[in-house]
UniProtKB/TrEMBL annotation:
Domain called EamA: residue spans: 4-138, 153-286
Pfam families the record matches: EamA
Membrane topology (UniProt): Multi-pass membrane protein
Name listed for the protein in its UniProt record: DMT family transporter
Membrane-crossing residue ranges in chain numbering: 38-55, 67-87, 93-114, 121-139, 151-171, 183-201, 213-235, 247-265, 271-287
Species this chain originates from: Hoeflea prorocentri
Subcellular location: Cell membrane
Length: 296
């Protein structure tokens, strides 16, 4: 079962890594809040035909947990995405990559404080090894450059956005037993509800950018892969191995994002990219080694 979870979580991070590159294409072609709302609206429309039989069969469960599922969609999808996009207007991509990689630590802390779930020594060491790999990518192989990073308003927004997704990840333990498509429909609806005020604000403030052909391409990609495929795989993967272990895989996102940038944007692959990939994978492997022993 663990192998299945690993495969699902790697697929998850492949989609999210691709989304980071797609976000570069979106700049100037569709505004951030409209991109978030558009991707979840399209994802909902794509899901509904496949989900209808399951929605009918599981309606009693959905109705009993409907507010919870909407809340999960608002927090994990709408608030995370919108605050993350907003933060990147005020801070660097380097800060964004490093601070997003801290999300597993927030999951560890929340699980310990709320549920008394202890963390193994191997998970702690594995986390720091993998986050070193992320920092290596984020600083282009110059780890001492971390000391010169500016921290300000954008970084506070980043931590806020990451906290939202950390809360979503921890709360997945209460996800009702549903077919993945039924759950995703409810979550996508929550994302639309939560994202609507941000889109309205863009329109009101004059910062709304309607999508051109490139913008539509990004919306379609984001709806299919990061929104449907990755989120469904993440839910199923975390259900198998838990939030602490599953959250560590998020450190693969900037690694895959870098590799996609090399393949799709023509950026140069450096030796430190390969070293970083080895550190991230090694850290995850160490955290997964006998995770139930030596708890602290």
């Amino acid at each position: 079962m663990a192998l299945k979870a690993y495969i699902l979580l790697v697929i998850t991070t492949l989609g999210w890594g691709g989304n980071a590159v797609a976000g570069k294409f979106a700049a100037g072609h569709v505004s951030p809040a409209l991109l978030t709302s558009g991707r979840w609206l399209l994802a909902l429309l794509l899901l509904l035909p496949f989900a209808l039989p399951h929605l009918r069969r599981e309606w009693s469960v959905l109705r009993a947990h409907f507010l919870f599922l909407l809340g999960m969609g608002i927090v994990g999808f709408a608030l995370f995405n919108n605050f993350y996009y907003l933060a990147l207007n005020y801070t660097s991509a380097i800060n964004g990559a490093i601070e997003q990689a801290a999300m597993p630590l927030l999951v560890f802390a929340a699980n310990f404080l709320l549920f008394g779930q202890r963390v193994s020594y191997s998970q702690i060491i594995g986390f720091f090894i993998s986050i070193t790999g992320v920092a290596l990518v984020a600083t282009n192989g110059n780890l001492p450059g971390l000391l010169s990073l500016d921290v300000g308003y954008g970084d506070a927004l980043l931590i806020l956005s990451i906290s939202f997704y950390g809360a979503y990840t921890v709360a997945l333990r209460w996800m009702p037993k549903l077919h993945w498509s039924s759950a995703m429909v409810a979550l996508a609806l929550g994302a639309l509800i939560g994202g609507a005020p941000f889109t309205v604000f863009e329109a009101w403030s004059g910062s709304l950018i309607l999508p051109d052909m490139t913008g539509w391409f990004v919306i379609v990609f984001a709806a299919v892969f990061p929104s449907i495929v990755s989120q469904a795989c993440f839910i199923k993967g975390v259900a198998i191995i838990g939030a602490n272990r599953g959250g560590l895989f998020i450190n693969l996102v900037p690694i895959f994002g870098t590799l996609f940038a090399v393949l799709l944007l023509g950026e140069q692959l450096e030796m430190f990219h390969l070293i970083a990939l080895g550190l991230v994978l090694g850290g995850i492997a160490l955290a997964e080694h006998k995770p139930d022993r030596a708890q602290v």
